[in-house]
Design a protein that fits this description.
heterodimer; A: mainly alpha; two-stranded antiparallel sheet; 2% strand; globular; B: alpha/beta; Rossmann fold; six-stranded mixed β-sheet; three-stranded antiparallel β-sheet; 10 helices; 21% strand
Chain lengths: 256, 277
Amino acid sequence: MSSVALTLKQLSYENKSFWRNPASAFFTFAFPLMFLFIFNTIFGGDDIGPKGQEVSGSTFYVPVIAAFSVITACYTNIAISVTFLRDEGVLKRVRGTPLPGLSYLLARMIHASIIAVLLVAIVSAAGILLYDVTFPSDQILKLVGVVALGAFTFSALGLAFTSFIPNADAAPPLVNASILPLLFISDVFIPLTEAPEWLPTVAKVFPIWHYAHAMLAIFDPFEPRFYEQGNLLIVAAWGLVGVGVAAKFFSWEPRK
Amino acid sequence: MSAPAIEVRALRKSYGEVEAVRGVDLTVQTGEVFALLGPNGAGKTTTVEIMEGHRSRTSGEVKVLGFDPGKRARGLKERIGIVLQETGVNRFLTVAEVIDQFRSYYPHPRPLDEVIEVVGLTDKRDQLVRKLSGGQQRRLDVAVGLAGDPDLLFLDEPTTGFDPSARRNAWSMVKNLNELGKTVFLTTHYMDEAQFLADRVAIIVGGKIVAEGTPKSLSEGLKIDPRATYSVPNEQAAALEELARTKGIDLIQVASAAPSLEDVYLQLTRDAEKGDA
């Protein structure tokens, strides 16, 4: 079998086993919706925008929760699940077979990306149906591109981060510690309007702020749009950093 | 005779200051069952993992089916099967799915039903892996190692944790594989396992091979006094002891007529550890 066919076959097994763990599958999808609902309930009531063009405040929450969905589906999921696979010896076992290790990891990353796409679709649909958000149908290609870029960057970073996780038990707290603070200071959960100036400066070093803003730009009904190219370049650069770190430090065996 | 399946010369492996393997030489002929015996921490797993390509070596030469395992060539991985001490598989797939998944990695896999039957999991075929018992999961480990129909199978402590009947089944499985012409490289710390299965054994202590040969030649080569065992009716035991005492005979309780591989092993590991200290 060619590497492509092997990767696809792997992907079908990934998919099969994902749906056989219904509790895990359910919350993968419910989690971002829950955040969308909570933040909209607390903060989303007021209309925003220039006089005469006001739109629902939820227009802010749909794109940032879409960004959040891509980040959890790829970064959080890959970092935690791959650490478990490493500790259970699954990675080592695969590595002893003719299957190229990269095909195996690629299948997981593609699966995570598919989940990310589904989540963005569900969050957008919820925004349109429940919160009267205008979906930027003229921006759909750009949205697909941004989701794909995010899937690449955050999967790569998730893979890279496993190198710093000593064991599976430590994976959830470490992964949360690595992204929760950034989610709070990157305009994802709360818009940073009254925060001290240094906070967004710190946030802008990391990819989450830029990713959230790139996503916001797509849904933003007002001209001019945010400087999205710059955002996307920084997100892509972080993806390459992830690839580099993973290539150098990724471990296929449990850490002793 | 065909080329040896495995050839190891002057193999050394250090982890920092610690030398885990200190100059090992081994030859495993094609078609034989070879057992590497040794106490925990003797370098068994390090040695076998170097042969499998899981670990790099510090120095020495290793050839497995003509390949250098350190290069991790796909051509080699297509012809070997590895059953590690602890490995996992996707727990949300069924037995048949897991084996089929691994079969898809190899150019000439063994038929699915045959693999399932060899390890005795036919009635668990459609069971999710997470619902299997420990022993059944271990059998699935072996099945995964067989999926690619390997010429050479590495079994790292394959029956640890098995109950006696599961061990007997595993042993007859290894015998069957061997009859099909497969070479089997096995590590174990069960003497009876090595004695029953292996054509040849090597004993490793402190990172060095201290003895190598057939189980029989090892016990002959080592000067351990043969012992005799008598079975007498219980009520005559006292009389026998009385007789022994008057004649100055030491009565020690032993089980077999010739020194077993276990006697050989214990003596050798004791000697080697004494020599080490």
